[in-house]
């Protein structure tokens, strides 16, 4: 009891300090130890932030219901049957040697049968072709006596399958065939047995029609007797004072149409028509050659060799056959065998 009383008395005797006293002592301590004070204040700040964040998260969790996490279903493993690796099981699984041989024999037989079927088909086709050839019976040649008087009249009329009847106004038929020809610098020959067979209006009108179809055209005239193309376009012969005269092409009223008059060949005194056509084929789309006297011309083979295609203008069958053979031997392809009705030469 005496010890307790002493303690109590000592507590009563000690002076009592207010909170202001302790706060002052704390400030004195802080001033004395700034580093310690900074560390303590930092720790207090971190604790305050941590408590604030935790409080906010607790509010969010209460507002949103908890989501149940669903675990993905595991794939069911396929249970494979265990292979029996014993020798007896292997022997049972393997086919017998006799079965293997039987399968190989079947494959060989099928191949042999296929080859035999192919051979039989080939034989049958050959036999069918031979039979078809034998079945084609050629018509028997029957000799019929022809009346010579009728034959002569037909020749005069021109009644033959290869010959086409037309007049000098039907030049559109010629232009249509020429326009079907392909290639640049194509040369076309207008071959005739005389002036009556080929009036100058046919090549001139044909050239004009070709120019209207946007074709650049050169018309070469071989009418050395009359110089008909130059007269048709009103072209006069050059008469210079000098003795040397050079032949030249002449322009016409039509933009893309050029004429090589017949009097140019009289100036040079020789006809090198092939060189002229080859040079003109580089500049012009079409080269037309007017040869009304080709059947009787001494240079007929040279003229025919210069052209790629040709028209024949005749009045009889004999004239047509003669000119057709000439073009064929010269390599000039015949694209028209035309018979002109009797007209006065122009």
The CATH architecture of the domain at 155-236 and 248-340: 3-Layer(aba) Sandwich
CATH topology annotation of the domain at 155-236 and 248-340: Rossmann fold
Regions with little confidence, pLDDT below 50 for 5+ residues? 137-161
How far is the first residue's CA from the last residue's CA? 176 Å
Q: What shape does the CA trace take?
A: elongated
Query: How are the strands of the largest sheet arranged?
Result: 1-8-7-2-6-3-5-4
What does this 3D model show about the protein?
- By secondary structure, the chain is an alpha/beta fold.
- The protein has a domain of 175 residues: Rossmann fold (3-Layer(aba) Sandwich).
- It is 50% helix and 12% strand.
- The chain has 13 helices and 8 strands.
- The chain has an 8-stranded mixed β-sheet, sandwiched between helices.
- Helix 7 packs across helix 8.
- The protein is elongated and about 160 Å long.
- 20% of the residues are buried.
- About 7% of the residues have low confidence.
């Amino acid at each position: 009891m005496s010890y307790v009383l002493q303690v109590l008395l000592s507590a009563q005797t000690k002076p009592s300090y207010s909170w202001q006293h302790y706060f002052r002592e704390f400030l004195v301590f802080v001033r004395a130890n700034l580093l310690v004070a900074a560390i303590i204040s930092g720790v207090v700040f971190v604790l305050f932030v941590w408590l604030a964040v935790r409080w906010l998260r607790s509010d969010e969790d209460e507002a949103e219901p908890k989501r149940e996490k669903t675990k993905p279903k595991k794939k069911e493993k396929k249970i494979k049957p265990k292979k029996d690796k014993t020798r007896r099981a292997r022997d049972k699984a393997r086919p017998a040697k006799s079965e293997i041989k039987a399968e190989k024999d079947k494959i060989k037989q099928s191949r042999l049968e296929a080859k035999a079927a192919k051979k039989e088909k080939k034989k049958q086709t050959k036999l069918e072709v031979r039979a078809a050839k034998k079945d084609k019976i050629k018509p028997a040649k029957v000799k019929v006596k022809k009346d010579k008087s009728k034959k002569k009249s037909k020749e005069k009329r021109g009644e033959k399958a290869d010959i086409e009847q037309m007049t000098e106004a039907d030049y559109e038929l010629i232009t249509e065939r020429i326009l079907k020809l392909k290639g640049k610098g194509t040369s076309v020959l207008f071959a005739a047995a005389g002036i009556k067979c080929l009036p100058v209006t046919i090549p001139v009108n044909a050239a004009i029609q070709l120019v209207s179809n946007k074709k650049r055209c050169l018309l070469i005239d071989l009418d050395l007797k009359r110089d008909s193309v130059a007269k048709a376009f009103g072209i006069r012969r050059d008469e210079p004072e000098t003795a040397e005269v050079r032949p030249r092409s002449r322009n016409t009223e039509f933009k893309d149409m050029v004429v090589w008059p017949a009097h140019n060949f009289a100036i040079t005194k020789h006809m090198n028509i092939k060189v002229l056509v080859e040079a003109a084929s580089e500049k012009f789309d079409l080269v037309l050659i007017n040869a009304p006297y080709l059947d009787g011309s001494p240079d007929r083979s040279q003229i025919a060799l210069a052209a790629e295609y040709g028209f024949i203008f005749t009045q009889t069958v004999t004239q047509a056959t003669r000119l057709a053979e000439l073009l064929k031997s010269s390599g000039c392809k015949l694209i028209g065998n035309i018979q002109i009705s009797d007209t006065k030469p122009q």
